[in-house]
Design brief:
By secondary structure, the chain is an alpha+beta fold. Helix content is 39%, strand content 20%. The chain contains 3 helices and 8 strands, in the order ββαββββββαα.
Amino acid sequence: MVLFAGDINILITGKNIDAIQERLSRIMKQFETWFSNNSLLISTDKTKAILFHFNKTCNLVKPKIVFNSVEINYSCKVKFLGINISNNLKWNTHIQFLCWKLNKVTSLRGDLSLFMLRNIYLQNFIL
């Protein structure tokens, strides 16, 4: 399981759900203390958790994640460093996003010069 909290990413693994839940609760309490001691806040609205798996049909047990008395929601996909990551670790989500962005640029194709199209491409996909 991975928890994405702004620039903080936590990877927690374990052999069973009880071990993961215990480790997760302990780590979240440590985070609460550290953030409080350093006068920092985390936007729990923007914080998402993702549970990676390879099997669509498996029955996933999602541990409860609580930070500052707010339960963190799970998401099927998150954007991390410009890459869209899905819970099944397939590229479909990222490819669909890239196609959507490319369609926006190619709709300008007849109106702009190749130089301008190149600059738009570089700004959206490379930089």
